[in-house]
Amino acid sequence: MSTLLPTQLRGKGVYAITDGPRDDLFAAVEAALAGGARLLQYRDKTTDAERRLQEATELASICARYGVPLIINDDVALAKATGAAGVHVGFQDVSIAEARAALGPDAIIGVSCYGSLERARQMRDEGADYLGFGAMYPSTTKPHAPVTTHDVLTQAAQLGLPVVAIGGLTPDNTKTVIDAGADYVAVVSAIFAAPDIQAATRRFTDLFDARPGIIQ
Ligand SMILES: Cc1ncc(COP(=O)(O)OP(=O)(O)O)c(N)n1
Ligand SMILES: Cc1ncsc1CCOP(=O)(O)O
Ligand SMILES: [Mg+2]
């Protein structure tokens, strides 16, 4: 992996993505971080700007305590207002150039590439910091997300940026995704809908820790 990557993205592991709104959001996130999540995304598709600002501000503080980058889904202004580490954007969201102009050179800008290596190359050339692929399996969180093949991860691993896999991941189906080339596995429901969030996250992190020869 290139040494030009942001330091925070040089490892491998679990990328936990919130499923709110929920009353116990902060406790839920704290449990995921205690379970070993390496990245945290605040994903809240509601339009309640006041609550979103309050929640993202508190999450930035929780993540800072764990040394985990907070990524905001979709909303560059919210990322800027909260001092988050970065933003995740898809094809319907702002461009990398707009996000970079707002957040600066050190921000993490992650992009969705779905199943497209062509889009991945373009996003890399535009300055993305990681490339997201999926859904890898049908997802109850995003039921209309098309499913892509594991082979895309293997090819994407040659592009020189961290590869993030998302969609329908569970502790039982994620090993093949890691073996195919994913550096990070992004998970919503199998973590945040679990009865024990910390234990559920740990089941994913163990998939990385169990790999011989991998320096975390
Ligand atoms: C890590 C990661 N990968 C993909 C997505 C999906 O982004 P997008 O396609 O913009 O869809 P929404 O999440 O905004 O519904 C993501 N959020 N995170
Ligand atoms: C945001 C997103 N993009 C593709 S699938 C997905 C949802 C992932 O959620 P889950 O881990 O519950 O399948
Ligand atoms: Mg989006």
From TrEMBL:
The keyword Metal-binding applies. Pathway: Cofactor biosynthesis; thiamine diphosphate biosynthesis; thiamine phosphate from 4-amino-2-methyl-5-diphosphomethylpyrimidine and 4-methyl-5-(2-phosphoethyl)-thiazole: step 1/1. Mg(2+) binds at residues 74, 93. 4-amino-2-methyl-5-(diphosphooxymethyl)pyrimidine binds at residues 41-45, 73, 112, 142. Residues 14-191 form the Thiamine phosphate synthase/TenI domain. 2-[(2R,5Z)-2-carboxy-4-methylthiazol-5(2H)-ylidene]ethyl phosphate binds at residues 139-141, 168, 188-189. Its cofactor is Mg(2+). Keywords: Magnesium, Metal-binding, Thiamine biosynthesis, Transferase. GO terms for biological process: thiamine biosynthetic process; thiamine diphosphate biosynthetic process. Pfam families: TMP-TENI. Its EC number is 2.5.1.3. GO terms for molecular function: magnesium ion binding; thiamine-phosphate diphosphorylase activity. The keyword tRNA-binding does not apply. Binds 1 Mg(2+) ion per subunit. One of its GO terms (cellular component) is cytoplasm. It catalyses: 4-methyl-5-(2-phosphooxyethyl)-thiazole + 4-amino-2-methyl-5-(diphosphooxymethyl)pyrimidine + H(+) = thiamine phosphate + diphosphate; 2-(2-carboxy-4-methylthiazol-5-yl)ethyl phosphate + 4-amino-2-methyl-5-(diphosphooxymethyl)pyrimidine + 2 H(+) = thiamine phosphate + CO2 + diphosphate; 2-[(2R,5Z)-2-carboxy-4-methylthiazol-5(2H)-ylidene]ethyl phosphate + 4-amino-2-methyl-5-(diphosphooxymethyl)pyrimidine + 2 H(+) = thiamine phosphate + CO2 + diphosphate. InterPro entries: Aldolase_TIM, ThiamineP_synth_sf, ThiamineP_synth_TenI, TMP_synthase. Condenses 4-methyl-5-(beta-hydroxyethyl)thiazole monophosphate (THZ-P) and 2-methyl-4-amino-5-hydroxymethyl pyrimidine pyrophosphate (HMP-PP) to form thiamine monophosphate (TMP). Belongs to the thiamine-phosphate synthase family. This is Thiamine-phosphate synthase.
